[in-house]
Design goal:
The protein has 471 residues and is mostly beta strands. The protein has 3 helices and 34 strands. The strands form 11 sheets. The chain has a 5-stranded mixed sheet with strand order 12-19-18-15-16, with no helix packed on it. A 5-stranded mixed sheet has the order 30-34-33-31-32, with no helix packed on it.
C-alpha cells in the first residue's frame, strides 16, 4: 500500500470517491479500493472483519437464532465475473447458514471471493467475523408463585412438588435454587421435596449461556388444620381423708403440640376442683377437656322401720326414707324376704325369727346403718262359745284379727251336719241365729255346733266346735 492509498483510506472515503481519489493520484498504475491490483484480475472491496450483534443485529429472545445480514460486497473487473461466499464456524466447519436467515448463537466467519469469465481469481479474499450474542434476560411466566399445602394425615412434613419456573430464552438455561425459612436446602432444577410446617422460600437463579439471568421465588406454605385430641379422665370423687391422684389426659396430634391447664389446687378440703386442659399444636389448633374432682365427706345415715315387729300376714313393710339413694340392703341370717334396693319386707314370704337388716350406701365415701327386725306368727283367736243373753260378754262370735283376711269364709253346722249359717266374708256378726236360707226357724237352740273357717290365703281350713247358750 503506497502513500496515495493510505491518504485515501485516512479520509475514510466512500468506495467510489476513493476510486476517484486513486485515479487522480495514479502514476500509470490503477488503484482500486485502496489496493494495488494488476489487470486483468478483479478488484475486491474490503469489508469490516467483525460485525457485532449488539450493534448490528437485533435478537428476538422468543426465537433463539438471530437473523444475520450485511451490506453488499463490491467487486470490479474488466469482464463479467461471479461472486461466491461461504459461512463457517470460527473453527472452520461448514454451517449451511444463509444471510438474512435465523442463526444460532455462536461465532462465524464469512468469506467472499470472485472469479471472472476467464477463470481469473482474486488474489485476495474478503473475510469478516460475526459474533451472534444474546443480550436479553430470560423471561419466566411463573416467576413469582405462592403454594399452600394442607396436611391431611399424620405427616407434618409432606412431599411437595415444586417445579422450576417456566422460562423462555434463546439458549440453554441453568437453574440453581436455595431454600430458606421453615425448610432449608439448595440444589439445581426442580425443588420438589419434603417441606416443614410454615413458610419456606424457594429462590431460583436462572442463567443462560451468555450470563443473562433473572431471579424467581416460590413461597411454599405447609398448613395444618387437624385439631389435636385430648381425652380427659372421667370425673373423680374422693373422700375427705383419702384424696387420691390427679389424672393426666391422653393427648395426641399429627404434629407437635403444647399443653396448658387451668387448675384449682386439689387438697383435703371438701369442694369441687375442675382441671381444664388446653392443648394447642404448632399451627395454633386448640382443643380442651376437663376432669372435675370432688372431695366429699362420708355419708351419715340411720336405718329405721316404723315397726320392728312384723307379722307373717304383712306383705309390704317399708323403711323410712333415706337421704342417700343408690345403696343396698342386706340381711342376716337368711330367711327374711326383703328387696335389696328398696328395703321393703314381705312378712308372708319370710320365716319367723329375728333378723339384722343393714343398708350400705355404696358411695365413694360409704356409710352403713343396721336395725333388728322380728318376724312373728300372726295368730287368729277363734272363741269356742257364744251366750246370747245381752250381758256384753260373748254375745257375738268374734274372731280376732280376721279383718287381715278379707277373703275369708265361715260355715256353721249342727250336730247332724246340716248347715245353719254361712258368710263370705264373715263380718264377726253371728249371735246364734240360723241362716234363713238354711233352716226353717231363725232361732237356734242351745247346744254344740261346728264351724269351718277358710282364710282365703291358700292355707288349710280351720275347724272347731262352738257351744251356743240361749237364755
Amino acid at each position: 500500500m503506497d502513500e496515495a492509498d493510505s491518504r485515501c483510506r485516512r479520509h475514510d472515503l466512500h468506495l467510489r470517491q476513493r476510486r476517484q481519489c486513486l485515479d487522480r493520484l495514479a502514476d500509470g498504475r490503477r488503484y482500486r479500493q485502496g489496493r494495488i491490483v494488476r489487470p486483468p484480475g478483479p478488484l475486491q472491496d474490503d469489508r469490516p472483519d467483525r460485525l457485532d450483534l449488539d450493534r448490528a443485529v437485533g435478537l428476538d429472545h422468543h426465537h433463539p437464532p438471530g437473523r444475520q445480514g450485511w451490506g453488499a460486497v463490491v467487486y470490479e473487473d474488466n469482464c463479467p465475473f461471479n461472486i461466491t461466499y461461504s459461512i463457517t464456524t470460527l473453527g472452520g466447519s461448514p454451517t449451511g447458514l444463509q444471510p438474512f436467515q435465523p442463526w444460532p448463537i455462536g461465532q462465524y466467519l464469512v468469506t467472499y471471493s470472485a472469479t471472472d469469465t476467464s477463470g481469473n481469481l482474486t488474489d485476495n479474499v474478503c473475510q469478516f467475523q460475526i459474533d451472534v450474542k444474546d443480550g436479553v434476560n430470560p423471561v419466566s411466566t411463573d416467576c413469582s408463585k405462592s403454594i399452600d399445602v394442607f396436611i391431611s394425615d399424620t405427616n407434618c412434613s409432606p412431599y411437595v412438588e415444586v417445579l422450576k419456573p417456566v422460562t423462555f430464552d434463546c439458549s440453554a438455561l441453568t437453574y440453581t435454587y436455595t431454600i430458606s425459612g421453615s425448610t432449608t436446602g439448595s440444589g439445581t432444577g426442580d425443588a420438589s421435596g419434603y417441606f416443614n410446617l410454615g413458610t419456606s422460600n424457594v429462590v431460583w437463579q436462572i442463567i443462560d449461556i451468555e450470563g443473562n439471568q433473572i431471579t424467581c421465588q416460590h413461597n411454599i406454605t405447609v398448613i395444618d388444620t387437624i385439631m389435636p385430641t385430648a381425652n380427659c379422665h372421667t370425673d373423680v370423687t374422693y373422700c375427705i381423708d383419702a384424696v387420691g391422684p390427679v389424672y393426666y389426659p391422653e393427648l395426641n396430634d399429627n404434629c407437635k403440640f403444647s399443653i396448658d391447664s387451668t387448675i384449682t389446687q386439689l387438697n383435703n378440703s371438701i369442694g369441687v376442683y375442675p382441671y381444664v386442659y388446653i392443648v394447642t399444636d404448632s399451627s395454633g389448633n386448640t382443643t380442651t377437656c376437663t376432669t372435675t374432682y370432688s372431695v366429699v365427706d362420708y355419708d351419715d345415715i340411720v336405718l329405721l322401720y316404723s315397726n320392728t315387729n312384723i307379722y307373717t300376714i304383712e306383705e309390704a313393710v317399708a323403711p323410712e326414707p333415706l337421704f342417700v339413694s343408690g345403696g343396698e340392703f342386706y340381711t342376716s341370717p337368711a330367711g327374711l324376704s326383703i328387696s335389696p334396693s328398696t328395703g321393703v319386707i314381705n312378712g308372708k314370704s319370710s320365716k319367723v325369727g329375728n333378723y339384722l337388716i343393714c343398708y350400705d350406701t355404696k358411695s365413694n365415701c360409704p356409710d352403713t346403718s343396721c336395725i333388728e327386725i322380728t318376724i312373728s306368727e300372726f295368730n287368729l283367736f277363734v272363741p269356742n262359745g257364744v251366750s246370747n243373753n245381752n250381758d256384753g260378754m260373748n254375745d257375738v262370735w268374734e274372731i280376732k284379727n280376721l279383718n287381715y283376711y278379707p277373703n275369708n269364709s265361715v260355715k256353721i253346722y249342727n250336730r247332724w251336719g246340716s248347715p245353719v249359717f254361712q258368710a263370705a266374708p264373715y263380718l264377726n256378726n253371728w249371735q246364734g241365729q240360723s241362716d234363713a236360707s238354711l233352716s226353717i226357724g231363725n232361732e237356734l237352740t242351745s247346744g254344740t255346733y261346728y264351724y269351718i273357717l277358710e282364710l282365703g290365703d291358700n292355707s288349710e281350713p280351720r275347724k272347731g266346735a262352738i257351744k251356743l247358750k240361749i237364755d
